[in-house]
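Sample 1 of the test manifest.
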Amino acid sequence: MKDFNFYSPTEVIFGKDSELKTVDEIKKHGGSRVLIVYGGGSVVKSGLLLKIENSLREGGLLFTSIGGVCPNPRLSLARKGVDAAKEFKADFILAVGGGSVIDTAKAIAHGAANPETDIWSFWMKEVALVKSMPVGVVLTIAAAGSETSDSAVLTDEVTSSKRGLNSDFNRPRFAIMNPKLLYTLPSFQLSCGIVDIMMHTMDRYFTLTEGNEITDEIAESLLRVVIKNGKIAMEDPHCYHALSEIMWCGSISHNGLTGLGAATDFAPHQLGHELSGKFDVAHGASLSAIWGSWAQHCYQAKPERFTRFAKQVWGIEKSSTQETARAAIDATVEFFAALGMPTCFTELGIGVQSEEILGELADRCVFYGKRKVGSFKKLDREDTYQIYKLANR
Ligand code: NZQ
Ligand code: ZN
């Protein structure tokens, strides 16, 4: 096991009606002037936003709101949010929504706490983030894991660059999780979430680090649980039990636990971010569209890791290592397809791309040769190009 630091300070308030505890949580974490951040309208339609605003009013908290966050959240809206937070003199940012809303809230918190710095400088690693403002979350989708993660992902729509920032300042103070809030999710978003939860686990699990028993077992059981309950939730989108399991898996899959003591990979995420940056496709869909091609290109780096995955997650055992590894890749891709998720570019809705575009995606993914991607197999420009090419059908 490699040495590690594990810092996961987010207080989780889980269960039915947990959103009613929002005011107490904000007060507990020092908030009195709250900027509420929300998305494109689902929380308006469901009445959740109004419910929270009313409870803040009754609880004597001052608040203002900014809505309109879209999937693959935009830098420009986050900048507007920073201005709104400064003008209102907010001391607490409350995200009511999914990963896009939470990441925007994190960005606003960083910008409001550092008024002299343009937030994109943090994402471009030009300026180190050394302080921020508290963020709380009322989660409405089980997917990105941003409610407990140290990450925030923004898109600069001017350059089509989708970039992540990792920092302990990205850890929310609290995450309120009521599985009933997932009842209104469109089935595509539920599927995107299941894929993303699996991928947060698999992007850590496919590692060259040996003998990491507890971390491996946590990852494998998480994958089995999310696959099992994903199938149930697809059939019965109001199954409280299945949604509870999926929602909690979402947080555990990305708070760091499933990769402790190992070198993590995350190449499929980086490959997917370029697809979302260029074509504005949903994050989960970008991952399911690229993973099979990544796996096909990379599994020879350590086929035994895929055979373990085959046995522990899918219960597959064939006569040879190679056969078992390939069967596990097929089973995973078939599961994505059964969720209604794309497994190649045409299914992703972007069509077959030209050689020029494949080259552009590959260049951007390796920052024009400035970095290699992943650790299971360190991908250079030729590797990323070949993976995009495999998915280009
Ligand atoms: O905008 P509204 O109207 O709220 O609708 C949203 C949005 O259209 C809808 N939705 C959310 N909750 C709903 C609902 N619709 C009905 N009922 C509900 N209860 O779902 C759509 C997707 O929302 P979004 O927040 O974009 O989803 P998700 O949580 O998957 O977040 C994706 C974003 O997070 C980033 C992704 O790259 C992407 O930008 N990620 C963030 C991470 C992090 N911060 O740790 C890690 C991830 O790997 C990921 O990169
Ligand atoms: Zn993800």
